Amino acid sequence: MRTIWKLNMISILYAVIIFLEIELLGNMFRIARITEMSIEIVRPSILIMGIGLFLVGTILIFVLLKRKFNDTRFIHFTCLLWIPYFILFVFLFSAIYPISDPGELPSDAGGLIAIAGVIVYPLYIFIVNIVGISSSGEKTA
C-alpha cells in the first residue's frame, strides 16, 4: 500500500511540473494584464520561471526516488499515472479561472507547443525514472 501512495505522489509531482509549465505558457497575456507589466518583461520572466521550475522539479524527483522509492518494479507506471492528475489540474484551473477576455486566449502556436510537450513528456519521465533508480541503487561509502 505504501508503494501505491509513493507512486501516486511522484505521479502528482510529474503532473504539477508540466501543468505549471503549460499554464505559464498559455496564460502569458493574462499574467501581463494582472501584473500590469509589459509583455516584453513577462516573456523572459516566464522563460526563466519555466526553466527553474523544470530543474527544481527534476532535482526533487531525483531526491524522492533516491531516498523514498525502494521498490523499482512499479516506478515505470508513472509514465502513465501522471495523465489523470494532469487532466484534473487543467480542468480545475479552467473551471476556477475561466478566460474572461478574448484577448487572453493563447495563440495556436502555443497550443501546438503544449501538445508536443505533452506527447514528449512520458519520454522525459522514463529517462528521469531510469536515472533516479540507477542512482538510488548505488551505495555510497
Report Rg. Answer: 17 Å
Shape: elongated
Structural class: mainly alpha
Please report the number of helical segments: 5
Order of helices and strands: HHHHH
Show unreliable segments: none
* Main sheet specs: none
Helix % is over 70%
Task: Determine the mean pLDDT.
Answer: 87
Distance between the termini: 31 Å
Number of strands: 0
Q: Note the beta-strand portion.
A: under 5%
What does this structure look like?
78% of the residues lie in helices and 0% in strands. The chain has helices spanning 2-26, 28-35, 39-67, 78-96, 108-136. The protein is built from 5 helices and no strands. The mean pLDDT is 87. The protein has 141 residues and is mostly helical. The radius of gyration is 17 Å and the shape is elongated.
Gist of the model:
This protein has 141 residues and is mainly α.
Strand-helix topology:
Layout: H1 2-26, H2 28-35, H3 39-67, H4 78-96, H5 108-136
Helix pairs in contact: 1-3, 1-4, 1-5, 2-3, 3-5
Please tag this protein with its features.
single chain; 141 residues; mainly alpha; elongated
